[in-house]
Amino acid sequence: MGQTIQRRVKLIYPPSLIDEPLLYRLIQRFNLMVNIRRAHVEATEAWLVVDLEGPPDRVEEGLAWIQKQGVLVEPVEQL
Questions:
Q1: DSSP 2
Q2: In Å, what is the CA distance from 77 to each residue of 27, 28, 51, 62, 74?
Q3: Range 49-70 average pLDDT
Q4: What integer is the mean pLDDT of 39-45?
Q5: Is pLDDT at 79 greater than 60 in this prediction?
Q6: Are strands 46-54 and 5-13 parallel, antiparallel or unpaired?
Q7: What is the DSSP letter of 18?
Q8: 9-20: per-residue pLDDT in tens?
Q9: Is 59 exposed, middle or buried (0-12, 13-18, 19+ CB in 10 A)?
Q10: Rounded mean pLDDT of 3-26?
Q11: Which of 41, 42, 48, 69 has the most CB atoms lying inside 10 A of its own CB?
Q12: What 3-state class would DSSP assign to 5?
């Protein structure tokens, strides 16, 4: 098995994307392991703090893809 990395990020969804299954698509499309660490979801706002794990290129491609969909990605410092 190849090298894997883990990145913790905060995904901030705009209201127009809250009902879209973007996390599911991220997992399926890029074959990443995702662990939801924290979440806040309401009708008009949503954010998730997630750990993404996988090959470095797939993690970076996945993050670029979800940003292109309109989700703001912020790095989170891991303690």
A1: -
A2: 22, 26, 11, 19, 10
A3: 98
A4: 94
A5: no
A6: antiparallel
A7: T
A8: 999 999 999 999
A9: buried
A10: 96
A11: 48
A12: strand
**From CA 15, how far away is CA 32, in angstroms rounded?**
25
Residue 51: alpha-carbon gap to chain centroid: 8
pLDDT at site 77: 82
How far is it, in rounded angstroms, from Cα 40 to Cα 48? 6
Rounded Cα gap, residues 1 and 36, in angstroms: 24
Alpha helices in the chain (DSSP H): 22-30, 56-69
- What is the Cα–Cα distance from 52 to 41, expressed in whole angstroms? 19
| C-alpha distance from residue 47 to each of 3, 9, 42 (Å) | 29, 10, 9
